[in-house]
Specification:
binds iron/sulfur cluster; Endonuclease Iii, domain 2; 12 helices; about 200 residues; 2 domains; mainly alpha; Endonuclease III, domain 1
Length: about 200
Amino acid sequence: MDVESIIKNVRMMLGERGSLKLKDPFKVLITTVLSQRTRDENTSNAAKELFKKYDAPEKLSKASVADIASLIKKTGFYKVKAKRIKFIAKHVALHGMPKKFEDLMKLPGVGRKTANCVLAYCYGVPAIPVDTHVHRISNRLGLVNTKRPEETENALKNVLPKKCWLEFNLLFVKFGQKICRPINPLCNKCLLKGVCKYYNSIRN
Ligand code: SF4
């Protein structure tokens, strides 16, 4: 099965139509910083709390670090993240949202995954953000054979046609939350059993 058919099957399992709606760059940037070393559910709750009170960079730039920390307390390393978020909000309020990979990477707490998320989901620039779901599933399926997420991004760029980059993270994150879970993946429900390296290795 080629990689485009794998993506088509994932889309089918999730009932996704594959359309990508561009999102607010500032919120994606802050949410991705919140997501580091944090479970998806806690990230989403913390982002909701934070944006309920401070929904724009100008407002967030004036918040105290202590207040930001109290709103994002459910995420890992929340004190460090609160300081970074304040810095980022001030920077964006003063200079506007960075639109280039190199400029995004200069912000504190922003790594390749975060910068790629902003490029892909906010500006529609082809990029492959690699988080733990993308890294795990790509290796389970045998699309790549890598140890660290950073290596996975480059390896995926060699096997994925560029037209598939934009939706890849979005699909695989949902697939990882619902079916190909970190522990006890629902292989019996999965349409990719036949081609999955991991599934076939545990059966033999
Ligand atoms: S067969 Fe199992 S391990 Fe392989 S992709 Fe499907 S859910 Fe994941």
